[in-house]
Every structure is written in structure tokens, then in C-alpha cells.
Amino acid sequence: MMTIGEAAAASGVSAKMIRHYEAIGLIRPQRAANGYRAYAEADVAVLRFIRHARDLGFPLETVRRLLALWRDRNRSSAEVKRLALDHVAALEAKAASLRAMAASLRHLAEHCHGDERPDCPILDELEGLERVERA
Amino acid sequence: MMTIGEAAAASGVSAKMIRHYEAIGLIRPQRAANGYRAYAEADVAVLRFIRHARDLGFPLETVRRLLALWRDRNRSSAEVKRLALDHVAALEAKAASLRAMAASLRHLAEHCHGDERPDCPILDELEGLERVERA
DNA sequence: CTTGACCTTCCCGCCATGGGAACCCCCATC
DNA sequence: GATGGGGGTTCCCATGGCGGGAAGGTCAAG
């Protein structure tokens, strides 16, 4: 049994977040006589699981479902796969959206002199003049 | 002079957000005798500017600087361009991070049967078994 | 004069995380 | 046995960018 600090060091999850995960019901450590949270190896494994899932960008609500599936020996891998692929789609949609922003902004910036003069197609676009160079 | 609802309709920014932008000092509408906010065309132009900048993913603090540059007739386009290109870099970094997550998760999912059986490399990875198929 | 559509301010929620205050606990050292 | 420091505990606040909603004021049309 370890303290929260030890569990944090062992799992790579900050003590702050470990308490948070407990508050939202992802983990339920025991309590020592002095009131300190007491973590077993299995708890640390859960924390590592959570961290890995977070590293892949899963929202905590999905992490909760993944944890449930992980613990369920009768799970179907199809269900896990569905959660994963849904998340892949969400990630790719978000990435595509960001790349689209980057591309149009980069395009605008390419047409900006970038010198001491005030003329700037970027500001023109933001103002809503619907871009000069499109004409 | 228009009310906040009219300004919202004209600018495409919700009344809620218009008040928020005012609270953080991006816009300063006048007040009518009855206490209602009163927006001129110039205010609506500011709101549209904000919306366009937000559509390109600029954080509000950067929008604030862009607005200042927009209003400054002696601005240098170089400064605008720098803000823009910094933001492009941030967007691309974020997009790359998301795509990396999507790619590794997709890879894991490809090796998941996705049937009624419980075996699942996705869960194995999350557990931290460091992926079987890498061997 | 009521109704309803608008306006006002203020508070709370999301998501995931960090910072910090105020207090308790335990161990080592003097 | 006192003290100090490095834990732990709870609780509140902040981030960013928005939404929901309550409680109340205002105005125009019926």
C-alpha cells in the first residue's frame, strides 16, 4: 500500500489528478487509519491505464467506459474497437479543422508583405472585405 | 444604434458572447437611456472581426492584439504577420499531435478483431503491456 | 393593463488541470 | 520532548470560450 505521492510517482499521474479521478469515481483507494489514501498495485495499474488513455486523447467519460470494459472479462472487443474508432474519427475531424484554419491563415500570411507598411491582407480578411486576391 | 440582439444578428456573434467580449474589454458599446447597450455599425464591424479571428482559431488574447493593430493606422504588417504565423505554427503543432494520437489508435484498432471475443490489443496497450504486435 | 419579447445582472455548468490556503500527520533530529 | 520539514487532507479559485438559466426591468402591441 502506498500513499498518494508514491502512487503518483509510480503511475505518472499527479496527486492532484488522482484525487480528481477519485472525485469523479474512476478509482476508489482505501484509507489508512490516519485518513491517508492507500493505493495498491492494482490501483496504480488503473492510474496508468487512465494516463495512457488520456495520452491518446480519450475524454474522461470514455476512459470510464474503457475502464469498465477492461475490468469486464466478458467484454466484446467490438465494443472497445467502436469506442476507439469513434475517437479516431473525432481526433481526425478536429485535426482536419485545425489544419484547415492553418492553411487559410498561412495563405493569407503569404500575401502579407510583412514589412513596416500597414497594408495587410490578414487584417483585411478579418475585417470581412472578403479577400482582395480572390478577385 | 442597435440593441444587443440586433448586433448579434448582424455580426453572427451571440448576445451572450458580445457581453462577454465587453466584460474582457474587447468592445465598449454605448448605453441607451434605459440602460440597454447600444451598438453602432463600427461596433458590429468589430464583432465581425472578432468572429472571423475566432473562426481562424485565434485565442481571444491574440484577437485583442489583432484588434489593436487593426485600429492602429501606423501598424507594421510585419507584426500582424508574426502573430499570424505564430498561430499557424500552434495550429499545426496541435493538429500534428491529434493526428499522431489518431494514427497510433487507428493502428491499435486495426489489430483488434472487433468481434464478441474479449481479447483486445487496444486495452492491452492502455494497460501498458507495451503492445504485443511490436515484438 | 396585460402579454410577451426583449433587455439587464449574476450565478453555475462544461473539460481537465494547476495553484494555493489552512490544517493535520509522521518521522528524524537536536 | 520540542521542532522542523515534507508529506498528507479538504476546499476554493483560475484557466478558455462558451452555454443555460433565474430574477428582474423595459417597451411595444393588443
From TrEMBL, chains A, B:
BP GO annotations: positive regulation of DNA-templated transcription
Positions of transmembrane segments: none
SUPFAM superfamilies xrefs: Putative DNA-binding domain (SSF46955)
GO cellular component: cytoplasm
Keyword annotations of the record: Cytoplasm, DNA-binding, Transcription, Transcription regulation
Location relative to the cell: Cytoplasm
Every HTH merR-type domain range: 1-69
PANTHER family documented for this protein: HEAVY METAL-DEPENDENT TRANSCRIPTIONAL REGULATOR HI_0293-RELATED, REDOX-CYCLING DRUG-SENSING TRANSCRIPTIONAL ACTIVATOR SOXR
Xref: NCBIfam families: CueR (TIGR02044)
Name of the protein described by the UniProt record: Cu(I)-responsive transcriptional regulator
Organism: Caldovatus sediminis
